[in-house]
Specification:
The structure is a homodimer. Chain A is an alpha+beta fold. Chain A has eight helices and eleven strands. Chains A and B meet through helix 3, helix 4 and helix 6 of A and helix 3, helix 4 and helix 6 of B. Chain A binds a DNA duplex through helix 7.
Amino acid sequence: MLSEICIPLGMSQKDVVILDELIKERIRIPKGSSLFRLGDPTTSLYGLRSGTMKTQIQDAAGQVQITGFLLPGEVIGMDGLLENIHVSNAIALEDSEVCVIPLEDLDSLSQHLPILQFQFRRLMSKEITRSHQMVMSLGTLRSEQRLAAFLINISQRLSLLGYSSTEFILRMSREEIGNYLGLTLETISRLFSRFARDGLLHIQQREVNLIDMPALRALAGTDCG
Amino acid sequence: MLSEICIPLGMSQKDVVILDELIKERIRIPKGSSLFRLGDPTTSLYGLRSGTMKTQIQDAAGQVQITGFLLPGEVIGMDGLLENIHVSNAIALEDSEVCVIPLEDLDSLSQHLPILQFQFRRLMSKEITRSHQMVMSLGTLRSEQRLAAFLINISQRLSLLGYSSTEFILRMSREEIGNYLGLTLETISRLFSRFARDGLLHIQQREVNLIDMPALRALAGTDCG
DNA sequence: CGCCTCTTTGATAAAAGTCAATCAGGGTGG
DNA sequence: CCACCCTGATTGACTTTTATCAAAGAGGCG
């Protein structure tokens, strides 16, 4: 049953049962603490079961870049498969829970369950595409377009999880949004104020209410980072 | 022998021989033409054998973002494995040649050659990491830092191929560099002029001569996007 | 209540973009 | 062979966008 969240794509019931064997363990990650850190050996991947997390990379100078905000059902840790060393930090934005997918088991099972291999190939390809979209957002969009695209993206992903697509709570600070979008926290704050003034949304601290989705879409350019 | 270029990492001689069976075909791509286009079915991956290519995505409005410049030995097309439809265009910047790696063969061979599976997992993970670095570059670096990091990155990759790390020819225009780095062609041009004035490099059209690598590294912040 | 973090807002400055004109090379055709 | 044209590159003047610095306001929690 967990595996349906972790790996929710077209598998037969039988396959899903087999797959359940993969998930031996769950881990709770309290708000603010790390699931793994840069340099840790990569022994598992993780499917986010509940909560919200962020992944961030950092350079030698300590400069940080958030590379993703993760929602339930999404898989964390695939950037550590090059040398089996994590190259990012995964930090919980609220109390969260992940299911552990040991690489060892994944490998041995993949031998006899080709669809599992396909599935992970697809997930990795999806992450590549997502990251490329992010590059496009940072490379071509202006601040207001980036924030609009960000909100639409969050909205769509929450919607897929069965939550409201128009009312939700941002689990990340203005600073984290700014870092993610290549902007400063002040710019994010000003944009929220302007969007609210222009009737695109209501925002009260981290509670967002998207009012004019068509206008937001138009701003973002219909595509959704 | 081709496979050593296409998939150059730790395999036994025997494995390499088996792997050679994968490479049935080579394709020549003349300068300016496409290896594949957005929307094409993904039936193969491609290892670049010679030349230089770029991959770019585009949104509904036709806005383009270059997501990578490819040098010999690098693998193209992994972003198409989500739905087996290419989500990018791959275009030759000079006359190039790729070896074709049919997915069908890759899949059947992977069953009996686990190392091949690992290898592709690693390559995909590498692309994820590379793209995340790109996000960091766009999100946190200023224009001069981005260009310095770009030049160092090209330099390192050429060096690994046995070419000079200080003298090389840029196969892409100022506009393409600008698009890739989220800047305008004028900014790139000005930066090259400034770098030359400051004695960091010589540049004559597309011929670059890196003179002060330490200074370039310092500018880029030692990390190399 | 008071402290602490996060957020908002304003004033100013810096970075990069835009518009425009000129320049350089490379290739083509007279 | 040379002039011309076309694309790509450079440079300048000016504008826009976003960052920076600074101060004040709003919640939340001990």
